[in-house]
Design a protein that fits this description.
The chain is of the alpha/beta class. It folds into two domains: 119 residues, Beta Barrel (Lyase, Ornithine Decarboxylase, Chain A, domain 1); 250 residues, TIM Barrel (Alpha-Beta Barrel). 28% of the residues lie in helices and 23% in strands. The protein contains ten helices and 16 strands. Strands 1, 10, 11, 12, 13, 14, 15 and 16 form an eight-stranded mixed beta sheet that branches. An eight-stranded parallel β-barrel has the order 2-3-4-5-6-7-8-9. Helix 3 packs parallel to helix 4.
C-alpha cells in the first residue's frame, strides 16, 4: 500500500524529507525492550541521521551516542547525551577532535591503530587526563553485504589486524595516559543475514579468550552494529526484528560477571521513519526509454548512485495502469538515477513521487552540488 501524504503537505514545495516521529518512537521502544531483555546497552550511530528532533527522541529512550567525528561528539553533547554515554570511533581522528573529546571526558575512544593509540596517550598526558580506550579489532568476518559498507575484513582500512595485536598490547603497557576498558568490533552495515552475527559472537568469544590468556580482563565488549532494514518492502517490516538480533548476542556471547555489552545501531533505528518527497518535473520519452525526471536528485539521496542501492519508489498522485520508467534526478551526472525500469502508475508532470526508507544516510549525506538548495525536513507525530 503506497504511503499516504497528509493533505497539508501535498502543496508544500519539494523536495523535502518527511520524518514520522511516531514510527521512530515505536522503533526505539522495540529496540530498548529487546536490548533490556539481554542487558545490552545501545549507542545510537549519529552518522545515520543527526537531526535534532531525531536525537532528542533517541536520547529520551536512554540510548548512548556512537560518534565518528568531533562535530558528532559535540552534537551528541549538545543534544543532551551524557559524556559517559558517548563513544568516539573512526579511523582518522584529528588531534583537535581527540582534544575536544578529552576535554568533554567522554566514556571511551574506540582506537583503530597503534599510531592513534600513541597520539591519544600523548594528548591525554598533555592535558593531565587518562583516556579510556577500547581496541577496535578487525575480526575478519565477512558481513555479506555491499563491499563499500563491509568493514570487518583484513583488506578493509578499519581496525587492528590480529597479527598486529601483540605489538599493540606491548605498546599499551608503555603508555601511562590510556586505560584499556574494552574490545570493539564492527563488521559492516545493512546486514540482513543474521547468521553473520552468530559468527561474530563466536569470534568475539575467541578474542576475549586471547586477552584473558594474557591476563587482561575486558570490562566491556562492543559488538558494533550493522543490522539491516527492508528496503524492498518497507511496510511489511517497518520495525526490524530486534528480538532476534539481541537474542543472538544474549545467547551466544560468553559474558564474564559484571561485563557490559554495547551495540551501535543507526540505520535500523531511523531508516524507515524517513521518506524523501519529490515531484515530477518532466516525463521524457525516447525510442529506448521513458524517463520520469524528479526535482530530487543524488544531492538529496546519494545511496543509489554511490552503492547502486534500492529504494522503493511510489507515485502518490496518479492511479491507473502501470508503465515502466527510469526514475532520475536533475543533477548533471549520469549516475543521478534512482531506479531503472520502475513500474509506476502512468506518471505526469507535477505528480508527487516518494522514495521510501530514506531516514538513514539520506539527509545526512546530502550535498550542495550544482549549487542546489538544501531540502527541508518536516516532522510528523511524536511520542
Amino acid at each position: 500500500m503506497p504511503l499516504q501524504l497528509p493533505a497539508d503537505l501535498s502543496t508544500r514545495p519539494t523536495p523535502f524529507y518527511l520524518y514520522d516521529l511516531g514510527l521512530l518512537n515505536r522503533t526505539l521502544e522495540a529496540a530498548r525492550a529487546a536490548a533490556q531483555a539481554h542487558d545490552i546497552q545501545v549507542h545510537y550511530a549519529l552518522k545515520a541521521n543527526s537531526n535534532a528532533p531525531i536525537l532528542a527522541l533517541v536520547q529520551q529512550h536512554g540510548f548512548g551516542a556512537d560518534c565518528v567525528s568531533g562535530n558528532e561528539v559535540q552534537r551528541a553533547l549538545d543534544s543532551g547525551f551524557a559524556p559517559d554515554h558517548v563513544v568516539f570511533a573512526g579511523v582518522g581522528k584529528s588531534d583537535a577532535e581527540i582534544i575536544r573529546a578529552l576535554d568533554a571526558d567522554i566514556w571511551c575512544f574506540n582506537v583503530e591503530s597503534a599510531p592513534e593509540l600513541a597520539i591519544v596517550d600523548e594528548l591525554a598526558g598533555a592535558r593531565g587526563r587518562r583516556a579510556r580506550v577500547a581496541l577496535r579489532l578487525n575480526p575478519n568476518v565477512d558481513a555479506r553485504t555491499h563491499h563499500y559498507i563491509t568493514t570487518g575484513l583484513e583488506a578493509n582500512k578499519f581496525g587492528i589486524n590480529m597479527t598486529d595485536l601483540p605489538q599493540v598490547m606491548e605498546l599499551l603497557e608503555r603508555l601511562p595516559n590510556v586505560e584499556l576498558v574494552g574490545l570493539h568490533v564492527h563488521i559492516g552495515s545493512q546486514i540482513t543475514d543474521l547468521s553473520v552475527f552468530e559468527t561474530l559472537a563466536g569470534r568475539v568469544n575467541e578474542l576475549q579468550q586471547w586477552f584473558e590468556h594474557r591476563g587482561t580482563r575486558l570490562p566491556h565488549l562492543n559488538v558494533g552494529g550493522g543490522l539491516g532494514v527492508d528496503y524492498q518492502a518497507p511496510d511489511a517490516h517497518l520495525v526490524p526484528d530486534f528480538a532476534r538480533y539481541f537474542g543472538i548476542f544474549g545467547r551466544l556471547l560468553q559474558r564474564r560477571p559484571g561485563q557490559q555489552v554495547h551495540v551501535e545501531l543507526g540505520r535500523a533505528l531511523v531508516a524507515q521513519c524517513g521518506t524523501l518527497v519529490s515531484r515530477v518535473l518532466y516525463v521524457k520519452e525516447s525510442q529506448q526509454t521513458r524517463f520520469a525526471i524528479l526535482d530530487a536528485g543524488m544531492t538529496e539521496l546519494i545511496r543509489p548512485a554511490l552503492y547502486q542501492s534500492y529504494h522503493r519508489i511510489e507515485n502518490l498522485t496518479s492511479p491507473g495502469p502501470e508503465r515502466l520508467y527510469d526514475v532520475v534526478g536533475p543533477i548533471c551526472e549520469s549516475s543521478d538515477t534512482f531506479g531503472r525500469q520502475v513500474a509506476l502508475p502512468e506518471t505526469r508532470r507535477g505528480d508527487v513521487v516518494v522514495l521510501r526508507t530514506a531516514g538513514a544516510y539520506g539527509e545526512v549525506m546530502s550535498s550542495g552540488y550544482n549549487l542546489r538548495d538544501k531540502a527541508a525536513a518536516v516532522y510528523l507525530g511524536g511520542a
